[in-house]
UniProtKB/TrEMBL annotation:
Residues 210-280 form the Small ribosomal subunit protein mS35 mitochondrial conserved domain. Keywords: Coiled coil. The keyword DNA repair does not apply. GO terms for cellular component: cytosol; mitochondrial small ribosomal subunit. Residues 66-105 are annotated as: Disordered. The gene is MRPS35. One of its GO terms (biological process) is mitochondrial translation. Residues 307-334 form a coiled coil. Residues 66-84 have a biased composition (Low complexity). It holds the Pfam family MRP-S28. This is Mitochondrial ribosomal protein S35. InterPro entries: Ribosomal_mS35_mit, Ribosomal_mS35_mt. The keyword rRNA processing does not apply.
Length: 368
């Protein structure tokens, strides 16, 4: 009982002390209180906290957080005095920026070894004062150092004349000598009448492919082909406007296939088919009349018959029957008349053809 009495007494005194302090705080202006000493109050609060922690150890467990740094992980700041005492062998070495390669290049530098293949522009390897870019405020364009405009465009620094000469020397062992008989362009065109034109494009873009590179153009003169009059006229009729009459050149352009080699094979196939088709003679071609001809033909025409009858009547009136029909048609006057009539029929009536026809008729009839 004594323990219980003492405990109750301490609790009562503690409650009285709290109530007195709280009452004193609320009624400081009206009631005079006697506050407990600070040491007694601190001891009572510590005892109460200890009792609460013992009764509820898990609910009120405190977590400890440490912000201290171990001496091993702490990086000491070097002081000026420590830096001065550090040996020069222990200090970190700083690399010096090397001079650009252009300053060390010799005058007779082997350029193909600098740019052996296609590569972007390198300002440290090109000993030229290259500038590119938009000039700001009427100034000069940007220099080559750090210039992105020079990186955007393709360059041909790997295809200098010296590099091309070296490439040709390397490929010379794999090539045959040029034929000695083909020493002129006329001989080349005679033995190789077919001319092939292709184009390769170089562009700055995400793809090196160009759709125009597949186009193949074939040119050949009809006079170099083995064609008779019927085959030549039929081939001209088949090709249409691909034949140029003034130059006698047939042009075939192919671009239907996706590859250049396919278009080349297709162009050669078209030329072969046109050649063999022009030699064929259909049944309906045998029934062609003078009006169906592609151009005016003088032989066995009505103009030839009329001029022959006229000349025979003139010679009969003059009582000169020694000349035959072949001799009359072979005279100079009849030949000029034939040319003027053919040009008038094929080219149409204009000032030049009418003037030629007029003069030839005068000479033929002795009216000059």
């Amino acid at each position: 009982r004594a323990g219980g009495t003492l405990h109750r007494g301490a609790r009562a005194s503690h409650c009285r002390g709290l109530s007195l302090r709280s009452t004193g705080s609320r009624r400081a202006g009206s009631v005079r209180t006697c506050p407990l000493p600070l040491a007694v109050f601190a001891a009572m609060a510590a005892a109460r906290l200890h009792a609460c922690l013992v009764l509820q150890p898990r609910a009120r467990t405190l977590r400890a957080f440490s912000t201290s740094v171990s001496p091993a992980t702490r990086s000491p700041r070097p002081s000026p005095s420590t830096t001065e005492r550090t040996s020069r062998y222990e200090r970190p070495l700083r690399r010096k920026a090397l001079p650009p390669r252009t300053e060390k290049m010799a005058v007779d530098q082997d350029w193909p070894s600098v740019y052996p293949v296609a590569a972007p522009f390198k300002p440290s390897a090109v000993p030229l004062p290259v500038r590119m870019g938009y000039p700001v405020k009427r100034g000069v364009p940007m220099a080559k150092e750090g210039n992105l405009e020079l990186l955007k465009i393709p360059n041909f620094l790997h295809l200098t004349p010296v590099a091309i000469k070296k490439h040709c020397e390397a490929l010379k062992d794999f090539c045959t000598e040029w034929p000695a008989a083909l020493d002129s362009d006329e001989k080349c065109r005679k033995h190789f009448p077919i001319e092939i034109d292709t184009a390769a494009y170089v562009s700055a873009g995400p793809s090196i492919r160009n759709p125009k590179a597949r186009v193949v153009t074939l040119r050949v003169k009809l006079s170099s082909l083995n064609l008779d009059d019927h085959a030549k006229k039929k081939l001209i009729k088949l090709v249409g406007d691909r034949y140029c009459k003034s130059t006698d050149v047939l042009t075939i352009k192919t671009d239907r296939c996706p590859l250049k080699r396919q278009n080349y094979d297709y162009a050669m196939y078209l030329l072969t088919v046109l050649y063999h088709e022009s030699w064929k003679t259909e049944e309906w071609e045998k029934k062609k009349t003078e009006a169906d001809m592609e151009e005016y033909v003088w032989k066995d025409s009505s103009s030839e018959k009329n001029i022959l009858e006229t000349l025979l009547q003139i010679k009969a009136a003059e009582k000169n029957l020694e000349l035959s029909k072949e001799e009359l048609l072979g005279t100079k006057e009849v030949e000029e008349y034939r040319k003027s009539v053919v040009s008038l029929k094929n080219e149409g009536d204009n000032e030049n053809t009418l003037s030629q026809y007029k003069e030839s008729v005068k000479r033929l009839l002795n009216l000059t």
